[in-house]
Amino acid sequence: MTKSLPTEDRQQLQTLAEFRYTLRQFLQFSEKCAEQAGLHPQQHQLLLHLAGAPDGVETTVSYAAERLGLRHHTVVELSNRCVDAGLILRKNAATDRRRVVLQVTPKGQRILQTLSDDHERELYELVPRMVRALTTIRNSHKLSAREHASPPATKGNSK
Fold first, then answer.
1. Is residue 152 part of a domain?
2. Ranges for the HTH marR-type domain (predicted)?
């Protein structure tokens, strides 16, 4: 079916497919590593977002829910499992004692560091393919935008 598409359209689909495939390879790698470390993949992602939060950001359940793309109550359950596993702690926020901040424990930090080292090595291998695909996508978008732009008005032709 795609054989009947113009060459440019086929190439665009092939590039998008390659990028999506490479991204999925990384996600599968990440999930497998988390499971081998004894974590559910979402637990790993929670630890990563808590430990990697910008300075000055309170790592609340709402913050984690936003970063993970999950509902508030789902992150509450996820954080409960992480507390039970000794991966994170709940603390009252310094600015507002009613707010609860999630903090990675030393145990969680050790596991996260091991996983992060593994992920860095995997990304070292995959990033060149991702960059090539993204560069191709970006360049084709620029080209397409220029082709769709209206030609500049010339003197004497405007009414």
1. no
2. 32-142
Instruction: Please report, for residues 6, 40, 90, the alpha-carbon distance to residue 148 in angstroms, rounded to integers and kept in the order given.
Output: 17, 46, 53
Burial level of 16, CB count in 10 A (0-12/13-18/19+)? middle
Between the CA atoms of 68, 72, 73 and 79, what dihedral angle is there, to the nearest 10 degrees?
Answer: 50
Task: Give pLDDT tens digits for 127-150.
Answer: 999 998 889 888 876 666 666 665
pLDDT in tens, 51-108: 999 999 999 999 999 999 999 999 999 999 999 999 999 998 777 778 889 999 999 9
Label residue 38 left, alpha or beta by phi (over 0 means left) and psi (-120 to 50 means alpha). left
CATH number at residue 30: 1.10.10.10
Give the pTM.
0.79
Whole-angstrom Cα Rg for the chain: 23
